[in-house]
Amino acid sequence: MLYTYIALIFFIAFALFIPGAFLLTSKLLRPRVPGNKAKNAPYESAEATMGSSRDIDNEYLPYFTAFLPFEIVAVIMLVWSVASGSMAYTTDILYITLPIFSLIFVFISYKLIRGRNA
Predict the structure, then answer these.
(1) How far is CA 84 from CA 77, 79, 81, 89, in A?
(2) Which domain holds residue 82?
(3) CATH number assigned to the domain comprising residue 54
């Protein structure tokens, strides 16, 4: 049992080491050019830049709230349907309420999208 935890720790360390090594290597090997101020400015279709490039409007939030419940519910229901054969078809209250909550999120996102486009 201890072996599985040690293997998991090594896997996590390896999974963190590889991207870190690649980022560190690219930082050390790339040329150090100060850059061009006009080239590094955010593109605003030939208009003067207003604000920071980090100011992002949440225009995709309604689409995210519409997509996420379907994605999560599909995966959970698929796993449950495969496992329910060995569980003698017992149904937990979670699997009954999960589609209901996902539909509530979809209705909320529909209202947000409809209100934004109106």
Answers:
(1) 10, 8, 5, 5
(2) 2-117
(3) 1.20.58
